[in-house]
Specification:
By secondary structure, the protein is mostly beta strands. It is built from no helices and 11 strands.
Length: 111
Amino acid sequence: QVHLVESGGGLVQPGGSLRLSCAVSGIIFSSSDIGWYRKAPEKQREFVAITTKTGQIMYGDFVKGRFIVSRDNAKNMVYLQMNSLKPEDTAVYYCNIEAAWGQGTQVTVSS
């Protein structure tokens, strides 16, 4: 059974940075495409980024060079480095593999 655990969220001022982590177990990590999504109150879930088993990386249109997704196949970890954060980035951030989701980590961008 796939198990995903996100961490690293918190409160940050506009323009600040956070690094989210996702610990993965129960699956062959190096053979998995792993995505980051976010859900803000009263908004639809939104695609943030994905790192694929073939090394491809894609980002949602809103990212505009501010976020960097990476993976460590030796540690079964995926990371999302978020820079130049804006209040509209406030959301619960989730990692995803196929039908499996983590519990999410709250990111709040506010002064």
